[in-house]
Design a protein that fits this description.
This protein is an alpha/beta fold. The protein contains twelve helices and six strands.
Length: 289
Amino acid sequence: MKTRATTTTTTISDSSDDDDVNDDAMVAMKPSLLGKLGQSMNVAGISLFLKLAVSDASLAIPHIDCESIQDIDWFKLKKAGFTAVIFDKDNTLTIPYAAEVYPPLRESMKECKQAFGNERVCVYSNSAGLIQYDPDGIEAAQLEKELGIRVARHKEKKPSGSGTELAEFLNSNSSEKEKNRKSTTKDEEENTTSPCEKFVFVGDRYLTDVVFGNKSGMFTIRVAPFDVSHESKAIAAARSIESYFLRRWRTKNKTKATPHALDEKRKDDEEESSVYLKTNAARSWREER
């Protein structure tokens, strides 16, 4: 039976009066909340967040929203033409601050590596691998040993940063496997408008992971956090803000994800669920194992 860690969240009121509040007014929300948001995002990230609040909300909407990576059919993603998978770390693959994959997710992680190959699966974290916090790559190297996949080295925190930098990292491996990937890399360069268009980004945060993936041209999958008990108050506050705006954008403004060339929905499903999600039968089989 699938298990989930106990979670606790802070929420912004769901009262009907919220729908009568202007987005501009919400941008000028309490300084304490923005202050806490600032502790979990960099200055450029806050600026982008405020921009999204009034204009580009579609960047915060994922192409798929699901419970966990267990729901994702990695082999269908690979067959559709995607060439790499990038994961956030905390509450996507691991419990916050832990180095090992959360036990219920290990089988799905194994499937992902089988579908794409270890060298085309990596972690893109706002801690390990980030030059600001891990300049010598010590944390990244240790995490690579624990997870069995690479950890991207990068200069800026999500949602800032360059998708091109990530693409260069994925294509920088000098091992023998790189030679076997030349045709794939050439195809990416010749047939896509973005070096990341055939990448899948998976994370639990709308305004960091999803925004970063979408603005870089990736296919984005948002998973629900499975253990927020270890998170800081700053991140809890940021999640509350995310929840408010996502609810507003989706329900009142009917905002949808930025179109992606490889996105595909089930034609016989009224809710238009993604073909890249496992069927109910597959989920039941997995949960009963």
